[in-house]
Amino acid sequence: MSDSLSTLMQAGLLAPLSYFFARFVARGNAVPEDSLLGQSAALVSMRNLSGDVCVDLRQFAGAPLFESEDDQGIVVPQGPSLDDWMNGLRGASWVGGPGEETPLVLEGTRLFLGKYWSFETQVASALIARMAPVDGIDQARLAEGLTRLFPASADRAVDWQKVAAAIAVSRRFAVISGGPGTGKTTTVVKVLTLLLEQSPSMRIALAAPTGKAAARLTEAIAKEKVRVDADPELLSRVPTEAKTIHRLLGGVRGNRFRHNRDNPVLLDCLVVDEASMIDLPLMARLVAALPDQTRLILLGDRDQLASVEAGNVLGDITGHGRDIGYSLAQLQFLESTGAAPAGALPGELPHAPLSSVVQDPSITDAIGLLRVSFRFKSDSGIGALARAVNAGCGEDALALFESGLFQDIAWLDAPQDQLNPQCVDWAAQEYTHYLEQSDVGVALERFEHYRVLAAHHRGPFGVDEINRAIAERLRSEKRIQGGEDYHGKPVMVTVNDYEVGLFNGDIGLLWRDGDDGLRAWFRGTDGQLRSVSARQLPQHTCAFALTVHKSQGSEFDEVLLVLPFDRSPLLTRELVYTGITRSRMKLAIQGHRGSFIEGCRHCVQRSSSLSERLGWADAVHARGPLAHRPNNNLS
Ligand SMILES: Nc1ncnc2c1ncn2[C@@H]1O[C@H](COP(=O)(O)OP(=O)(O)OP(=O)(O)O)[C@@H](O)[C@H]1O
What we know:
The protein is α/β, with parallel strands linked by helices and about 625 residues long. The chain has three domains: about 5-125, RecBCD complex, subunit RecD, N-terminal domain (Arc Repressor Mutant, subunit A); about 135-150 and about 160-315, Rossmann fold, CATH 3.40.50; about 380-600, P-loop containing nucleotide triphosphate hydrolases (Rossmann fold), CATH 3.40.50.300. The chain is about 35% helix and about 15% strand. It contains 26 helices and 22 strands. The protein has a six-stranded parallel β-sheet with strand order 7-6-10-11-5-12. Strands 13-22-21-14-20 form a five-stranded parallel β-sheet, with helices on both faces. It has a five-stranded antiparallel β-sheet with strand order 18-17-16-15-19, with helices on one face. Helix 13 links the parallel strand 10 (about 270) and strand 11 (about 295-300). The longest helix has 15 residues, at about 115-130. Adenosine-5'-triphosphate (ATP) binds near residues 161 and 374. This is RecBCD enzyme subunit RecD. Its EC number is 5.6.2.3. Heterotrimer of RecB, RecC and RecD. All subunits contribute to DNA-binding. Pfam families: AAA_19, RecD_N, UvrD_C_2.
């Protein structure tokens, strides 16, 4: 006999939200909360809070439904056999089939929260509606533009940027994915140029999930625009400013965005950067607010961490690290426009016929993978490290630190229960540079050069403790003075405040403004400085150290990555890869060697059916070291 859901909640094994949802569903069906229905509702809600979009009952049939520690003395309920489970749920009035508006939806063996089933199907149908190639492309003009903007290299190797550009111009939905410095922004500026050459009146917008990412996109687009060989008048129509997705959608009114299906954003083309950070609900709201004829181009690194909230939208769209092969029609198009030399691109993949990878090649036909990093050359330890981690080889990654070949990477062994003192030394030394500035604009810019990142919030290697240790050191060196709020304190906003215009993840500095006291200063997506009084500052935390999750969309010259000593579910290949690739020039990792190797083996797996809805064959979530082919993104 297993313990009740309420006991599980009291023991901290079940979130209160999941318990009350289970109770609500059970009462709605007039059954006890510890019935199969109540337990199933609690399971789906709990898994959703951990990032899954649905629960595949096959994974839980005959297995414990919730995680527990052996020493807790709690008996966790087990899933029944698959047949009994499916039959039991089919009889419940609050469990509907696909399309029914019920709190739970059962589709095949997958059980969804009704809302998430709707989000997933909305995203799938919006992307599928854009999957076919666009009619009426002037191929001669496109071929001329591709030749002009992507001059042939001497070695006649495939120019993956050119391939991705041809794909993005010819389709209403495209993804351009690549690791850091592979030229996503460079390519998209050329894509927009080619689109404007096809259709000069095209209305284009740029967006990103966070203010930081939008500011970086704005800056990168401005830099690339001046290098493009095209009519300056046409180029002036490429937008100069990227908005956050929240701002593009017009901010929240009540619990809805101002732009939605009934009041769409009127655009011909939307480019969204850092797409790996977009969770399923936000993606659903974004596509709902776009008319079907609006082109959507997603940029991102498919190997990065999935979004904080449920779903792994970019991973699902791009096949979770699988190789990409193109259909015959796509190969013919790419060759006829000169995007790739005849016979150079993968159609049927060397290790498998395309039909075993995708049920419908339209999905791979929409993806351009950038495979060469222009940032990390062959002497870059960061590049080599990212490649080894991405291939799941923690041992190889550790060997790079000891090889003596690379000056830009360093490993620090973690003492079991405290930070390595060298970490605090380095951080205090680096942060002194911005604290020495008199101008807040310069200080903000200087602050962005260096960052400490960690996997966890709490514990000896969590951001809370690291922030405390760094502040204490800087205080002892008289670099900062004062209590909770002080001149020079870095702050990160942790909520969206539409009134004040500051959003979750925005980073600024508290800075004394003459006699007016402390104000919090931020740089907007347009590059302009703005400040709010310390009193107006929405809920925030200290930001000497950030979680790797929060650092997505940012890059720094130098990074100290603090990994936990013990194995942890958070320590995954994607987390380590994302942490490493936040650094442009210099990286130090503090960690435990065994946990690091384990972490590199372990991939984030989130249950959803989006990849299958989009045409990928079977569930491709298993991305273990064997299933994953090393990619060349960072060569
Ligand atoms: N084909 C190319 N040849 C030479 N340099 C290039 C090429 N493409 C891009 N670069 C340079 O590489 C650098 C990175 O390019 P870009 O910013 O477009 O990459 P990204 O993938 O958007 O990077 P990020 O990781 O910052 O998102 C830039 O300095 C850019 O000018």
